[in-house]
Amino acid sequence: MSSAATRPAGPDDLWSVDEHLEDVLSTVRPLEPIELQLLDAQGCILVDDVTVAVSLPPFDNSSMDGYAVRVADVAGASEEFPAALEVVGDVAAGSADPVRVGPGQAARIMTGAPLPPGAEAVVPVEWTDGGLGEGPVSGMRARSLAPEGAAGQVRVHRPVEARAHVRAQGSDVKAGDRALEAGTILGPPQIALLAAIGRGTVRVRPRPRVVVLSTGSELVQPGEELRRGQIYDSNSFALTAAARDAGAIAYRVGAVADDAETLRSTIEDQLVRADLLVTTGGVSVGAYDVVKEALSHVGDADEAGSGVEFRKLAMQPGKPQGFGSIGPDHTPLLALPGNPVSSYVSFELFVRPAIRALMGLTDVHRPRVRATLKTDKALRSPKGRRQFLRGAYADGEVTPVGGAGSHLIAALAHADALIVVPEDVESVEEGAEVEVVLLG
Question: What 3-state class would DSSP assign to 128?
Fold first, then answer.
């Protein structure tokens, strides 16, 4: 853990939200780079700039199905007085040795095919008779059905300018250009570009592996029978989904009963596949809050620099929190409270930035904006606590969704923002300007 975690603090002293976040981010380090195949690198962060080795496109090629021609041969062409040209062959996409187009000649050419030597432009097939000796056609007949279309004569009904319907070599990117910058998140368009310039592998920081587990003997898996005193486990589903949304490879572990030895064993078993561990529940002051008990002896917790510290934060919801590292590799662990809203808000404020930091991103936070508060009654907030209320944001305005209770899952499902009420503010009136964390 960082030095921030060793600051003097009594059992009842509160950490600020910013102090806890600083401790987390000063401890978490980006994962080491690895070389991955393109599809395996999706969602990862590029470590090095990528330079174009081969221009894109690598040769002049046609942007239309039509005929490659010399400009002078179709000058003044019209439907009444078409230019009649000799068709000397086909140029299909992938053609390595295209025909040559001389005076009075044309080559039937397909989209993406290289512009043949001697040709200066492409006439779309719709501007010709398609070699049928009649009026304009709407397209070419398949070569397998009419091989004679690659020979004979074609009548062109309109003139073209030089380079018309030709994609120039290097018009997308040129050899030596920088295709992608280090720090780029590799999504489908970036993967496409890497493939187009011939890169089969790329050096990236891998997506973090995040293991999420919830604790509580009262938790039942969705789909199972619910008995008296039991509730369905929603936290592990919410946080696993949130971790994936943040860019991680997330694994959900079934709910663990309130038994310290069972929890300890489960966590130790999960260390082998975790770059980050997230627990939810069992961090408060109850007799059955076993996470504290379990984590005090996990793995090599006695090793210098290891161990999890539990603390109280000056925030609502989410006051009880735990953070540290465990195991031989000092795997970071964040222990979140068990109330659904508390755990989700805590994830957004602390776990999501940690995941993004592991990925090697520099901007790890959700976007924040200023918005006008729309509310029927003033928002109340406890003095000395930074409150995060669920809200719906649109067009510069934010409206509270649901109440302040940390159990209101339905309200959370309809929110796309968090309304931030600072520690020194106890009431916020209609029309006030507030800070908003955008979740979408």
Answer: strand
pLDDT tens digits, residue range 13-62?
Answer: 899 999 999 999 999 999 999 999 999 999 999 999 999 998 999 999 99
CA–CA gap between residue 280 and residue 278 (Å, rounded)? 7
pLDDT in tens, 335-351: 999 899 999 999 999 99
Query: What does the alpha-carbon distance between residue 351 and residue 244 come to, in Å, rounded to a whole number?
Result: 12
What does pTM read for this prediction?
0.83
In terms of Cα–Cα distance, which of 181, 159, 188, 21 is closest to 79?
Answer: 159
Give the model's pLDDT for residue 301: 44
Length of the chain equals 440
**Residue 284 burial class via C-beta count within 10 angstroms: exposed 0-12, middle 13-18, buried 19 and up:** middle
Q: By the 8 A CB rule, do 38 and 191 touch?
A: yes
3-state secondary structure (DSSP) of residue 343: helix
Q: What does the longest C-alpha to C-alpha distance in the chain come to?
A: 96
Residue 17: Cβ within 10 Å count:
21
| Element housing 370 (H / E) | strand 368-373
How many angstroms separate the first and last alpha carbons of the chain? 31
Task: Give the ranges where 157-210 is alpha helix by DSSP (H).
Answer: 188-196
